[in-house]
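hiii, so i know i said id send this last week but things got crazy w the move. better late than never?? heres the sequnce for the chain we talked about at the cafe, plus the structure i predicted for it. fair warning i was half asleep when i ran it
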Amino acid sequence: MDDTTYIVATDGLTKRYGKRNVVENLDLRIPQGCVYGFLGPNGSGKSTTMKMLLSLVRPTSGEVRVMGRPMTRATRRELLGQIGSLIESPPGYGHLTGRENMRVVQRLLDLDDKQVARAVRTVRLQDHLDKKVGNYSMGMKQRLGIAMALAREPRLLILDEPTNGLDPAGIEEIRELLGRLAKGGVTVMVSSHLLGEIDKTATMLGILSQGRMIFQGTRDELFAASTPDVLINCSDPQKAHRLLTRDFDTSLENGTVRLPGPGNQTTAGVVAALVGEGIGVYEVRRDEQSLEDVFMDLTGGGGL
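okay and structure toks below
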């Protein structure tokens, strides 16, 4: 893909605080019209990266291009006019109603009534506009924040942990909303610690670890890059386990031998060796992996 295909592209994006690199040489590529799941352990640099994309934090070095244009002082205002965002806690004045909060945004951005109404309908908040935001549930506050971000009809929406504090119903609402937005042509970049939700929503994934991009691509490409464990059912699992622990970090789980991440050739050699020792091999299969399994493998078990 060339740069015109990407709504966001960075080259060598770096942010350093003192001697510590929070983000290092990041080459981010976000295609148009996708939901881009941005993952990484706590402290990996996700929020700092998002703030650099929004020009809230100045990079130490590197370049940010949005919609094919460099983000500079000269272009910042125009480019940000096409970007909606929800970073950290949702915005809004608790003593005002949802409608009054949307009017504040309308005046600040010089929007018309149709734009505001469309944003409110998109997040399905039209029946709650006359309630004070201080009485909103967390899910309603998140939806109001997204409505504020959508009111300017952005081409790009950047959301940092939009499902924080939500119950399962609220999480489901946000997930459906992100899918609808992407189908409507809005590119969504979303970070989340809920890997299962990202797995259901994102069409592209980027994984950070210690400020560096360790994977970027589709879900299928991610799983292809990871080799799942092999599970072996055999006639004498205790003996098989003893034999294999000489060369592998195997484990024995409910009578099944687990061999961590071997390739096909190694697996074939293991089966041949077990049969040669008089052990009957009944079944050999790859363990099913979730996004969380692959994430933990890539990041060395770092928590989100």
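btw The mean pLDDT is 89. thought thatd interest u
miss u guys!!
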